[in-house]
């Protein structure tokens, strides 16, 4: 297995997926009310799920690695817990922003097939974030104040507050 670094794992997830297709393309939303269908979204969601599953596998492999090694970048720079929190919240904001964009345009006729696709992605993201939090002591405490409204709103809209209780606890207490 090739050596992976936590910073590149978190950065590679959005760079190597269709998340940016969901969010924007040339400054405007690619997914519109006209094309927000299961046929259009399924291949995009499958791509995102594939990359997230790979990232989950890679993070699981880091469990047996010394934390100082995990927190060292490919360039040899030691990351702080706050640095990792910024990487993770950037990933969360990107994914949740893309999902929020889809939620804004999905028709009521398509929600019963689109919502499960979006929930699949966010379920994997929750798993990834929980694994990273388990790996990096103190990370969750750094993340909590960074959680923005889009994450809380999307979790509520998709009925994922239980899945994300660990992250949005301040909003649901």
From TrEMBL:
Membrane-crossing segments per the record: 84-106, 113-132, 144-169
Superkingdom of origin: Eukaryota
Alphabetical keyword list: Membrane, Transmembrane, Transmembrane helix
Keyword Transmembrane helix: yes
Protein name, entry field: Uncharacterized protein
Classification of source organism: Eukaryota, Fungi, Dikarya, Basidiomycota, Agaricomycotina
């Amino acid at each position: 297995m090739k050596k992976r670094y936590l910073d590149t794992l978190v950065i590679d997830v959005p760079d190597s997926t269709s998340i940016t297709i969901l969010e924007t393309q040339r400054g405007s939303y690619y997914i519109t009310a006209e094309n927000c269908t299961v046929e259009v979204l399924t291949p995009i969601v499958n791509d995102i799920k594939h990359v997230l599953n790979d990232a989950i596998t890679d993070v699981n492999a880091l469990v047996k690695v010394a934390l100082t090694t995990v927190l060292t970048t490919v360039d040899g720079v030691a990351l702080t817990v706050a640095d990792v929190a910024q990487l993770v919240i950037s990933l969360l904001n990107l994914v949740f922003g893309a999902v929020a964009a889809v939620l804004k345009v999905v028709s009521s006729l398509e929600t019963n097939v689109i919502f499960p696709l979006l929930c699949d992605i966010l379920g994997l993201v929750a798993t990834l974030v929980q694994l990273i939090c388990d790996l990096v002591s103190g990370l969750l405490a750094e993340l909590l104040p960074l959680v923005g409204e889009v994450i809380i709103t999307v979790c509520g809209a998709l009925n994922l507050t239980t899945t994300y209780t660990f992250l949005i606890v301040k909003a649901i207490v």
